[in-house]
Amino acid sequence: MNNHLLLPFKKTAPLPSLPGALRTYISEHFKTIGPEAFKDDIHQFVRLRRDAVEGGIENHRENIGRLIKYHATLAYLLSKLPPDINQVFPYDPTFPPTYALHTPAPLPLPTLAHERFVVLYNLAACFSNLGALEPRTTPDSIKRATAAFQNSSGIFTHLFTLLPSLPKGSLEPFGSAAFDFKEGYIETMKSLTEAMAQECFWQQAVHDKYKNGTVARLAMKVSELYDQTLVASQKEFPSTASHLPPAWTALITIKKFHFSAAAQYRMSVEDLEKNRYGLEIARLEVAQGLAKKALDNAKRGIVSDLVIADIKTLSSTLTSSLARAKKDNDLIYLDLVPPAGELASVQGALMVKPVLPKEVEDSLGWLIREGGGLGWEGLVDYGVHVAISVYDDRKESFVRDEIVGKKEEVDEIAASTLQSLNLPGALQAVERPMGLPPSLLGMAEEVRRERGPERVRKMMDNIKSSRRQADVLLNEALDVLDQEAEEDEALRARYESASPSGLRWTRPASHEVNKHLTQQAETFRSTLNQAAASDGVVREKWEQWEDQIEVLGGNEDALSNSVPRLPTGPSLSSTPLTRLLHTLLESLSDLSNARTQIASTAKGLASRDDVRSLVISEANSIQRDAGAGEVRAEWFEGLFERELRKYESAREEMEGNGREVEVVLEEIRVQNEAFLASRRTSPTIKARENALQDLDLAYHRYREVVLNLTEGVKFYNDLLTLLTGYKNDCKEWVWSRRSDVS
After folding, report:
1. What's the pTM value of the predicted model, to 2 decimals?
2. Distance of CA 15 to the CA centre of its chain
3. What are the backbone dihedrals phi and psi of residue 644, each rounded to the nearest 5 degrees, phi first?
4. Residues contacting residue 117 through CB under 8 Å, at least 6 positions apart
5. By C-alpha distance, which of 139, 95, 134, 91 is closest to 116?
6. Residue 238, preceding bond cis, omega within 30 degrees?
7. C-alpha distances in angstroms, 549 versus 425, 428, 539, 559?
8. Alpha carbon of residue 535 to chain centroid
9. Is 615 within 8 Å of 391 (Cβ atoms)?
10. Superfamily classification of domain 1-209+353-379
11. Could you read off the pLDDT of 152-179 as tens digits, one per residue?
12. CATH topology for 434-572+679-742?
């Protein structure tokens, strides 16, 4: 008695790369334990996959157990590992596209989360098909079918909760080929399996001779559930209905009308029993119209003979009952027959519900009790890794913002203040009327050793070339997308011109499904524009100081000749004011060294700060004492607060250092005013001061430019890697689009 639909399975192929992917991931991310420790677990996992999905799934009870065990193991492994382990899982779509000339290539699903989703889908399909294949000739068989359909509907309901766990955007490259991961498809399958469960309950009620009114309400709910299935199949774009075989939509539509007609017929029998002869005729006429709609759909020749026979049997019953009712009413009862619009609606009675199997609802508990144990001992829960990464982010942010950031802020204040006071250039000019200060000679030697000007020009050329290459890569990637869009438009036009009137190309247009790629392109373009603007700022800085840096990096004689000499005579170098200024500048230098040491100590502490053992211990304690399940980062807020306190002393030291710098700088300002007032105001002295200060500043600008360019080179190298990957992603997306119509 199989007049139910059989759900297709999502098929896959063997994965010879899976053991290596697991070993590699464990080796790279679990330093304290090697992959050899999990040799048996990996072998068991691969075997479970092979038995559950790789050999093809058949509609047998044994396959239910295999799928349940593989799912439970997958769910447990996902508590230990992230979804992405650098392994794809290829699966065929449930229904090939109606416009495809050949079977499309499998979709390379990118994560373990997708694998779990597909396994649950196949489990739901297996439950549903077992229900459909039940003979339903005995009460026990009908009960088994009802339970199987409810389990299937329960799993489809559960899949709704898992949709957000799939990495965002992970299915967009597949376009409409991934329709069976969309809410519309899952809701269609959920409503369909619930409708088939309700139909089984209705059949049991008919077998058990329930009252006609009760049977009518049960039948009406069957009709309503099939109608919900049709509504769900039309949601989203492209709709699920556009992917379903025509026979599916036809059968669901037929059953919607058939059971609505059956409900009206049963209510007419109740009306006859209660002497409501006019109502009986009205309902029989409504039922006859509904049965005609069902039969019209059935005559298209795409449903089974059994379905057509059921409708014809109902139609024959309605015809004979209506003829008898009209004859009796015309001759005997003379009861008024109300119009169809005045009939009270038949209220559907829902007697089934989605039931999630216990083995899926509590997969971990089932695995412990009946599934042979957990395995994978030594793998830390993935939630522990998340918690550790949260702590590491907070730690690094604290050190960067509260300690290193404060150091850089104080450094900048000290440097800008000394620059505004023309120090130490003013002191050096009068202390060494001839020659150059040792500090300046050291700076010049550093620039010469690095071949400063030549180095800067080469780095700027490198950046210019990389920026040009990045533009080319981005444009080439967009050309690939543009070419695919042109191909899509041509195929759309060819298909619609060659198809019967009104038949349209259902595959979504390229611009609708490649938004994730075009948005990435916009981000890359904006990044390149911002980078070009930053490059311009660095180039302007270089051009402004290029001449001075050339002098600084030239030979020593030329450097010495660029600085005016003072006439011989009494020097101000030995006055109390100059000695006091020197002392203050040395204090400032000592404070700078102290800041560097504080920041270095904090960064060293952060690099050694590993809370792994503390987090694991805390997680084990919470799970043991509270019976908690999956590890969550919020469990460790108290631990994080305690551990971050070790950096408080560094922050306090840095803040104290900053306050001392403010005091020293204020004293330098005061003493510098006195020094300026007591100094001879010769133009030659002023010129020498300015020259020395410019060379000192040129050195610092040189260091800034080199740092900026070094960061720029790294930025463009990283960007070129990303753009190369992006271009490859575009090519893969285009390939998947082309495979739809290959």
Report:
1. 0.61
2. 24
3. -70, -15
4. 159, 162, 163, 166, 181
5. 91
6. yes
7. 17, 19, 14, 10
8. 33
9. yes
10. alix/aip1 like domains (1.25.40.280)
11. 999 999 999 999 888 888 888 887 788 8
12. Butyryl-CoA Dehydrogenase, subunit A; domain 3 (1.20.140)
